[in-house]
Amino acid sequence: MLEMTREQFEELVSQALDRIPPELMRLMDNVAVFVEDEPEPGVPDLLGLYEGTPLTDRGEWYAGVLPDRITIYRGPTLRMCETHEDVVAETEITVVHEIAHHFGIDDERLHALGYG
Q1: Fewer CB within 10 Å, N side or C side of the chain?
Q2: Amino acid 116: pLDDT
């Protein structure tokens, strides 16, 4: 398995977020991004997870709720990648994938766009 500290991986996630166009970042609402080492047991290959209410599903009732949560998992990403460059690319894809869920884009569409 490729070695990378948690801090180094967090920096890659931060860099991936910095590459999201500012006009999209401004549209994100009530969402926080986290890095965890491993996903819940039973899903060892999960690279990222979006938990919350997509912007497209929010209505008048949406107020006073906890932020949506995007989690990027370091362990599965490092296990699937062979080089540092692979980790950079996969992290960027995962960050975009999970942000897309915040905007209401489903997995089928993301796979069609190359962000599966």
Answers
A1: N
A2: 73
Query: What is the residue whose two structure tokens read 């599966």?
Result: 116
CB of 13 closer than 8 Å to CB of 91 = yes
Write the CA distances from 23 to 4, 36, 86, 112, integer angstroms. Answer: 31, 27, 27, 23
Hey, what amino acid is at 81?
A: C
Q: What is the pLDDT of residues 60-100, one digit of tens each?
A: 898 889 999 999 999 999 999 999 999 999 999 999 999 99
Long-range pairs of 48-56 with CB within 8 A, sequence gap ≥ 24:
48/72, 48/73, 48/94, 48/95, 48/97, 48/98, 49/73, 49/98, 50/98, 50/101, 50/102, 52/102, 54/101, 54/102, 54/103, 54/104, 55/27, 55/29, 55/102, 55/103, 55/104, 56/103, 56/104
Task: Report yes or no: 107 and 70 within 8 Å, Cβ to Cβ.
Answer: no
